[in-house]
Design goal:
heterodimer, A: Pectate Lyase C-like, eleven-stranded mixed beta sheet, 4 helices, 12 strands, globular, B: 501 residues, alpha/beta, Alpha-Beta Plaits, TIM Barrel, eight-stranded parallel beta sheet, 15 helices, 30% helix, binds iron/sulfur cluster
Chain lengths: 253, 501
């Protein structure tokens, strides 16, 4: 019985279903061993993917609400539409693939897992992401971002591709990497110095950076039907934290 | 730069008693005592002394006396020594003055202006040694009404998750990193033994401590350090930290000196970096957003545990608290003006926020007026010193009390206010492994459990004297309080009558 459920794609029509009920059903299904779930007619239900703790595949059609995949630990969520604010909030493990835009604080304090957004994102993407050893969150944004991407970053990888910008068009974000003290940001396209936070330095890419890009831009391209080669041809810069303790000299004892 | 700061303390070493054993040299983490090999003598650099008394108490012959430096400035009520010395420090460093522990200023401590009642003649007092006394407290949202099944008389109403406390005193949030792992172990074991809760603070939970989960409150703060599904699942209560009494509106800043390998692992940040907790939680800019995080955490734990929200007591706490309850908080925590910290800018610690007594009284009154007091438990903290303060807080409307400084004092802290330096000589507020081993978790847990046991006995005495046999009957019963030396406005806000009336 359980075996059968595993192979079946379970479908839920989410129209008119509250988030609490929807998530309860997701919990039931995953604990029964279901490995593929399709959610149709999603209209703003929050917290999809929270508290599942299994590598289940969830396809979302419609518009999921805030905190998609918050505290998530394992599932892979594919959104055929736009994600709202707090997507991947404090995510631990798993993958979120958004065929569209995402709102503010994408990947806030993420500790692991991957997030791919095809188009643009709102304010403070990748804020305060962390890492330790092999546990490292990765966020790849196909379009451009609003202000403060990578703010307070303590770890992880943030990649901003700017694919929807023209050759001469600058990225939109200001205060990029403000307060950054760990992790790395890779940026494709042009920016002016004033768009960078005071705490970040700019560097040319090295061989190991290209390897990282090849891997994650490769995955990004595969998800959204781009050619990775074409994307990687372009010039990238690498932003890194200039100091381990950006605010170390602020205090008198 | 030559410093113009005078020494705070004088150190006297009685030559008759001193046996040159150098215990003081080894005990001091502030580089005060040293052995002068040339003269074969132990000496002191008193300008470094912070007044923590570690040496004096560990000197085998009690040869050391520490006293305040009597060097007087010309009397001046405005330009007090502290004011002058703060300016000197800033002139020499150009930085924000950082400090540890709670507000040490003279703002009125209302507990000292409140007195409790006792039974005389018209109703009998109760002898707690021979009669049952109930201190049990349940934290969590209480239903507006309960319904029973008509036939079976079983409970029909679905109750929100409740947490049982044997003593209404819990250990407040002190993060791993701010305090040592041995302090966490001491707190966790004492809480488990005494049937109460301890709080991880915002630095995550060390793997060794998951076993104490059922007596643990885990915190989710703006830095989201160590927050993951296993952490949330382990806990009995999840607490969202919005603010803290020692630094309302200010983010956290664990100095890089304290971010050791293990702290870096638990927090998932690079070793040696400052652990930055942003001032706001960037997913909470409104009551609606708070509600969103509360329910994110409830979803993440399938509605199995209460979610608490902690704020610093500020001017409009009552209105905020009402919003918090409506946002879905099962417990609200108010941390007052005297709430302590591992590190905070001094100007914030000493000048921002309101006394906990006022905040508690106004929040409790407001929630009652709105008819939602039952929907959340109220926990207060910030300078609670003894069981008398606890009893008064309960009478003012608190369900339970958090202690922080009092717990650290039980572990050895002498309130020297140097927690931000990472050099705590008592091994409490440091991650230096040479120092942290000074707290033995077995002894630490014993000392903490003793403190709670003492307070419980005293609380029972207080209740018995009033002729009450359950703490529940004192809760929010302000008729058991009277004020002394307070103005009409103060009495009105506290909801307490003048002594004698
Ligand atoms: S610990 Fe006491 S006896 Fe030993 S050297 Fe210091 S002052 Fe002298
Ligand atoms: S914890 Fe340590 S450093 Fe902080 S006040 Fe107490 S004794 Fe001093």
């Amino acid at each position: 019985m359980a075996q059968k459920e595993t192979n079946r794609v379970m479908k839920i029509d989410a129209s008119g279903v509250s988030y609490r009920e929807l998530n309860a059903r997701l919990r039931d299904m995953t604990s029964n061993g279901t490995s593929k779930i399709e959610l149709r007619n999603v209209y703003g239900q929050r917290y999809i993917g929270t508290d599942l703790g299994k590598p289940v595949n969830i396809e979302v059609f419609g518009t999921p609400g805030n905190d998609l995949g918050a505290f998530m630990d394992g599932p892979r969520i594919t959104v055929h539409g736009n994600a709202q604010d707090g997507c991947g909030n404090t995510m631990n493990e798993g993958e979120i693939i958004v065929h569209g835009h995402a709102g503010d604080i994408l990947g806030l304090s993420a500790r692991g897992g991957r997030i791919f957004v095809r188009d643009d994102v709102g304010y403070r993407a990748g804020i305060h992401m962390k890492e330790y050893g092999n546990k490292k969150p990765v966020v790849v944004i196909g379009g451009t971002a609003q202000d403060f991407p990578g703010e307070y970053m303590a770890g992880g990888i943030l990649i901003l591709l700017g694919l929807n910008l023209t050759e001469e068009e600058r990225h939109k974000a200001k205060f990029i990497g403000t307060g950054m003290h760990g992790g790395v940001i890779y940026l494709r396209g042009i920016i002016e110095d004033y768009q960078l936070g005071k705490e970040v330095g700019v560097a040319e890419l090295e061989e190991k950076d290209y390897q990282i890009l090849q891997k994650f831009v490769g995955e990004f391209a595969a998800h959204f039907g781009y050619k990775a080669k074409g994307i990687l041809k372009h010039n990238f810069i690498k932003l890194f934290p200039r100091w381990l303790r950006p605010y170390g000299r602020l205090f008198a004892y | 730069m030559k410093t113009y700061l005078p020494s705070k303390f004088l150190i006297e070493r009685d030559p008759e008693r001193c046996i040159q054993c150098q215990v003081c040299v080894n005990q001091c983490s502030f580089d005060v005592h040293y052995y002068d090999a040339e003269d074969d003598e132990v000496r002191s650099r008193e300008e470094n002394c912070v007044g923590c008394h570690r040496c004096a108490l560990f000197c085998p012959t009690r040869a050391i006396t520490i006293s305040r430096n009597p060097m007087d400035y010309r009397e001046n009520y405005n330009w007090r020594p502290e004011v002058i010395e703060d300016i000197i420090k800033q002139a020499e460093t150009g930085g924000v003055l950082l400090t540890g522990m709670g507000n040490d200023k003279g703002q009125r401590i209302y507990w000292d202006h409140l007195v409790l009642n006792a039974s005389q003649v018209t109703n009998p007092s109760i002898d707690p040694l021979r009669e049952p006394m109930e201190l049990t407290t349940y934290l969590g949202r209480k239903s507006d009404r309960v319904e029973l099944e008509p036939d079976s008389h079983c409970l029909k109403t679905e109750l929100a998750p409740q947490v049982k406390l044997e003593v209404p005193v819990m250990f407040t949030a002190m993060s791993y990193g701010a305090v040592s792992l041995n302090v966490h172990k001491s707190l966790a074991r004492a809480a488990t033994e005494m049937g109460t809760l301890w709080n991880t603070g915002e630095g995550g939970l060390h793997p060794d401590l998951y076993q104490y989960g059922s007596n643990t409150i885990v915190q989710v703060a703006s830095g989201r350090f160590g927050v993951h599904p296993e952490y949330l699942d382990a806990a009995q209560v999840i607490e969202i930290k919005i603010g803290q009494g020692a630094k309302p509106g200010i983010g956290g800043h664990l100095p890089g000196e304290k971010v050791s390998t293990e702290v870096s692992l638990t927090r998932m940040i690079p070793q040696g970096t400052d652990a930055l907790s942003p001032a706001p939680q960037h997913d909470i800019y409104s009551i609606e957003d708070l509600s969103q995080l509360i329910y994110a955490l409830k979803e993440a734990t399938n509605y199995t545990k209460p979610v608490s929200v902690k704020i610093a007591a500020v001017h409009n706490s009552a209105a905020i608290a009402s919003g918090m309850v409506r946002a879905g908080a099962d417990i609200i925590v108010l941390d007052g003006l005297r709430g302590a910290t591992g590190a905070a800018p001094k100007v914030i610690r000493d000048n921002v926020g309101i006394p906990i007594e006022m905040a508690l009284a106004s929040v409790d009154s407001r929630l009652r007026q709105e008819g939602i007091r039952n929907q959340a438990s109220i926990v207060v903290s910030g300078g609670i010193r003894n069981s008398g303060d606890v009893a008064k807080a309960i009478a003012l409307g608190a369900d339970a009390i958090y202690i922080g400084t009092a717990a650290l004092v039980a572990l050895g802290c002498h309130v020297c206010q140097q927690c931000h330096t990472g050099k705590c000589a008592w091994g409490i507020c440091t991650t230096d492994l040479a120092l942290t081993k000074r707290v033995n978790p077995d002894i630490g847990a014993r000392r903490l459990a003793n403190l709670l046991r003492g307070w419980s006995l005293e609380l029972k005495d207080i209740l018995g004297g009033m002729g009450i046999n359950a703490l529940e009957s004192l809760r929010g019963n302000r008729l058991h309080l009277r004020g002394i030396g307070l103005t009409d406005t103060e009495l009105e806000i506290l909801g307490v009558r003048m002594a004698g009336s």
